[in-house]
Amino acid sequence: MREATVGQGRGAKSLFDKIWDSHEVDDELIYIDLHLVHEVTSPQAFEGLRMAGRPVRRADKTLATADHNVPTDGTATARLIADELSRVQVEALESNCEEFGIPLYSLGSERRGIVHVIGPELGVTQPGMTIVCGDSHTSTHGAFGALAFGIGTSEVEHVLATQCLVQARPKTMRINYSGELGFGVTSKDLILATIGRLGTSGMQGYAVEYAGPAINALPMENRMTICNMTIEGGGRAGMIEPDEVTTEYVRGRPAAPKDMEAAIERWKDLPTEEGASFDREVDIDAGELSPMVTWGTTPGMVAEVTACVPDPAVMDSPADREAAERALAYMDLQAGTPITEIPLERIFIGSCTNSRISDLREAAALLDGRVIASSLRGMVVPGSQQVKLQAEEEGLDEVFRSAGFEWRESGCSACLGMNPDILQPGERCASTSNRNFEGRQGAGGRTHLVSPSMAAAAAVEGRFVDIREWS
Amino acid sequence: MPVDPVDVIEGQVAVLDRSDVDTDQIIPKQFLKRIERTGFGEFLFYDWFRSGEIELEPHPILVAGRNFGSGSSREHAVWALKDFGFDVVIAPSFSDIFYSNCTKNGLLPVILSEEDCRAVAGSGEARIDLDDQTVNCAAGVFQFEIDEQIKHRLSNGLDDVAMTLERAGKIDEFESAGKADAGPLTSSL
């Protein structure tokens, strides 16, 4: 990894500069092109509007869905949700959207799904836009060459009322990935390795552009996985320049521009210009990366699959040492244990990081004709109802079911465990999600973050394997 | 929403000597289903309190480790800290979204070096003056940085939305100049 710190220069502009500058309404006031809303972080914002007697300024630039706490067992409408608090929250979203005129895909809609899956799927996520949502993984949409970031509930209220956000201009960082990803190494491994190197606050305060041949070679959904996890490195926003891959993904979707060719011409002006400067630049050789597995309780506590659980005693900083010791105690792991000898009880394939059709295809290809270890419980939760339908058309549901996986309805599910899909205390899970925090997937649960193919192979073996040598 | 203005905060210091304390720890997911802003204090650090792993008194000042408030954007974390009794959190660094959420709720986030944080923690008591941007304790006086705009809003307990609505003319101009027209309309779906 090579690093350079470059001063803020004027003249040549970056992708970030162009979007920021074209959305500045006034000093530190940014116009928002798309506001995505879900049931968990919005009720207090709507209540704030009601108390102040304020309307929603642009309901036609706002879109809501129910994803965070919905059951994935086929519950058909909000009224039928068994958990009372979840039911109240989804019903509150429904009545708030009706009161304020906001388009909503709630339980029962074929367009419902995880907010960061349905935005791109519907084509409302497009290059050059500013996109916010009361969810930290909003950075996902940056994969289209948009400026997208998570906000809190007070800011949700602010955007509903004004269609703008008060925001200081962040610093900019570019991470250049040279070379190409090796066989069995995915975009999930690339971002996990990046966070492992830079640390969980390494991108703090920055809008990050992921660039270089290794990024340009990736299909759209793999790019989304990278931008999605920007927040796990502390980054404000993650973005990738739009190209033909981007425009072909948008083309034909329900909200795609009517005059696609004119839009493509506009989007051609977006990529970072030669000579544009960044506050920080980092170079990473993608060819050196391996499949990754987290061993601790932050996404930065990550190792190559061929490595062993690290020894806190050899860590330089006392803070790192203490954190690693606590993480190993929580994870019930011994320093020096090979990653491939960690036994598993649960497998979760889903979340806004890895639940799109290409993720499911990647896992299913490895599971076809195989059966998961008898000690395991495996769960596949598609990112949206559309992803689910598509997968069923392709017969992927049968592959997963025959292998012994549960095939469920869409939602955030076990990524954050707000619905019944949680780990039991002490259970160890290989998960394609984004956070391995203590108790994230259920109190006392132990999470190891991996790519869909690593999760699929681990399901068959009941432990982690190096996907590059597994057949 | 208007909040109480922040001026001088004085009192005893509670210490949470851990880094990367994420918002899932501050307020676990099972408490995010409430649709109010109030009453989250009793669920603060639910798992850690319940297991006896940590103990914290509801003093006005909390000193914590680096990257405090990482992870989820849930503002419930700030509501819980504030409701529990904290008026200021001092740490070597904060996650961006958490920091912003603090400033919307009158919870003052103060960034000091790791060494200064330990000194404040060791002093047991402190006096934080937002106007002077100082933390005064037995170990010394430490200066902290804060964005001028944020300071102005915090000191006056200003309602962000009301302030932006004062600039509604600029937003109207932006829209009528066609600058907001490029993106899709969700109403067309």
Task: Give the tags.
heterodimer, A: 471 residues, five-stranded mixed sheet, five-stranded parallel sheet, 31% helix, globular, B: alpha/beta, seven-stranded mixed sheet
Description:
The complex is a heterodimer of chains A (471) and B (189). Chain A has 471 residues and is α/β, with parallel strands linked by helices. In chain A, helix 2 crosses helix 5 (153-162) and helix 12 (357-367) packs across helix 14 (396-403). Chain A starts with a strand and ends in a 10-residue tail after the last helix. In chain A, a hairpin with a 7-residue loop joins strand 14 (292-294) and strand 15. Helices cover 31% and strands 17% of the residues of chain A. In chain A, the strands form five sheets. A five-stranded mixed beta sheet of chain A has the order 1-13-10-11-12. Chain A is built from 15 helices and 20 strands. Chain B has 189 residues and is an alpha/beta fold. A seven-stranded mixed beta sheet of chain B has the order 4-3-2-1-5-6-7. Chains A and B meet through helix 2, helix 3, helix 5 and helix 11 of A and helix 4, helix 7 and helix 8 of B.
Rg of chain A, Å, rounded? 21 Å
Instruction: Write out the strand line-up for the largest beta sheet of chain A, numbering strands in chain order.
Output: 1-13-10-11-12
**Structural class determined from secondary elements of chain A:** alpha/beta
Shape of chain A: globular
Query: Largest interface, per-chain counts?
Result: A-B, 87 and 60 residues
Estimated helix fraction of chain A? 25-40%
Helical region count of chain B? 8
**Biggest pleated sheet of chain A:** 5 strands, mixed
Report strand order across the widest sheet of chain B: 4-3-2-1-5-6-7
Low-pLDDT runs of 5+ residues of chain A are none
Structure classification of chain B: alpha/beta
Alpha-carbon distance between the termini of chain A? 32 Å
Order of helices and strands of chain B: EHHEHEHEHEEEHHH
Oligomer: heterodimer
| Strand coverage percent of chain A | 15-25%
Number of DSSP strand runs of chain B:
7
Distance between the termini of chain B: 32 Å
* Global mean pLDDT of chain A: 96
Number of helices of chain A: 15
Radius of gyration of chain B: 19 Å
User: The biggest beta sheet of chain B, please?
Assistant: 7 strands, mixed
